[in-house]
Amino acid sequence: MQVTLIGMASGKIFLLEYSIHDLEKTLLNFLVEKEVTIASSCSGHGICKKCTIQKDWLTCEMTLKQFLERQADRTIYISYL
Ligand code: FES
To answer: Strands (DSSP E) along the chain, which ranges?
Structure first.
């Protein structure tokens, strides 16, 4: 299983593999584990509002499972990447 990540600034596309064991991780932690450079200065406490994907979803406040339920095409868009 995989999610697609599109860097809107660079136009780069990444395919990120995940397993059932990743579903309860925060999306922020999942992306960090996949070595995606994602902005964060509050260590995932929902304060800095820098870890956004799509328009305004905070990756530190949703699990990978919640993301997959919300985004049917399984594509992550990061504006500054
Ligand atoms: S990491 Fe700061 S709000 Fe998500």
So the answer is: 2-7, 13-17, 52-53, 57-58, 75-78
Question: What is the best residue among 27, 51, 57, 80 to mutate for testing ligand 1's pocket, by most ligand atoms within 8 Å of CB?
Answer: 51
Whether ligand 1 lies within 6 angstroms of the CB of 8 is answered as: no
- Ligand 1 atom 1 nearest Cα: 44
Domain of residue 73: give its range.
2-78
Does the Cβ of 51 fall within 6 Å of ligand 1? yes
Whether 2 and 73 have beta carbons less than 8 Å apart is answered as no
CATH number at residue 7: 3.10.20
Tens of pLDDT, residue by residue over 7-51, are 999 999 999 999 999 999 999 999 999 999 999 999 999 999 999
User: Does pTM top 0.70 for this prediction?
Assistant: yes
